[in-house]
């Protein structure tokens, strides 16, 4: 039990990578707050899975791009379990258009959810952790695209590039409080965010050709890295991004 006695909040914890992290943390003894948006039953599967494992869990509805809802999310987490030790900023969105045609309202939404959201959650969580005085962990789910350009995905890439420097900067600022801040940079992980690619075998083939290990990653594989960063073993790890991408960032680009 690597997270016994810890309280962890996972944004976007009802599905995909967030769900795998919420379940993975609960298996290691953490009490988990599953943040979700949409209908109340969206988080049911994650909540029942964690309960069936004997874990402690609550689901809280909050849109991370709304400051009042973020404040409420942190308050509800502390209400439920008395404290907050680990935050995983996982919630994220992506839509694709040619840059010159990208609608500004979509640009703003992407940056709000993927960058301003994690900033607000980290800020509120850090205040809570400082009050507790026992340090803490902030883990941001970024992307290979905090480094790798992706045509038709400019706002997403910009938001993840922003997350890269947010992490580096606040890791330095929060170190004196023993709060570590790290990014995970997943590559192509098999989740609904890539439903468009999964539905088109010719696109999927092109994507796989960019990955030296030649396969999708699984959410549980990302959860394993998040678990390490959340655990006591990672106490000296802060301010960096850890990629989990099947070698995508190192591909030779031979086609
Ligand atoms: C994106 C996916 C993409 C993957 C690899 C992720 O950050 O959300 O759409 O397939 O990176 O390029």
How would you describe the overall organization of this protein?
The protein is of the alpha/beta class and 255 residues long. It has a single domain, classed as Rossmann fold (3-Layer(aba) Sandwich). It has eight helices and seven strands. A seven-stranded parallel β-sheet has the order 3-2-1-4-5-6-7, with helices on both faces. Helix 1 crosses helix 8, helix 3 packs parallel to helix 4 and helix 4 runs parallel beside helix 5. The chain is globular, with a radius of gyration of 17 Å. The structure holds beta-D-glucopyranose. Beta-D-glucopyranose binds next to loops.
Brief digest:
This protein has 255 residues and is an alpha/beta fold. It has 8 helices and 7 strands, in the order E-H-E-H-E-H-E-H-E-H-E-H-H-H-E.
Could you tell me how far the N terminus lies from the C terminus, measured between alpha carbons in angstroms?
Answer: 45 Å
CATH topology: Rossmann fold
Helical/strand content category: alpha/beta
Taken from the alpha-carbon principal axes, the silhouette is: globular
**Adjacency order of strands in the biggest sheet:** 3-2-1-4-5-6-7
User: Could you give the order of the helices and strands?
Assistant: EHEHEHEHEHEHHHE
What count of helical segments does DSSP give? 8
Beta-strand content bin = 5-15%
Which architecture does the CATH hierarchy give at level 2? 3-Layer(aba) Sandwich
Poorly predicted ranges:
none
- What is the level 1 CATH name? Alpha Beta
Count of folded domains: 1
Number of strands: 7
Any idea what the CATH superfamily is called?
A: NAD(P)-binding Rossmann-like Domain
**Radius of gyration computed on alpha carbons:** 17 Å
Helix content: 40-55%
- Main beta sheet strand tally, sense and closure: 7 strands, parallel
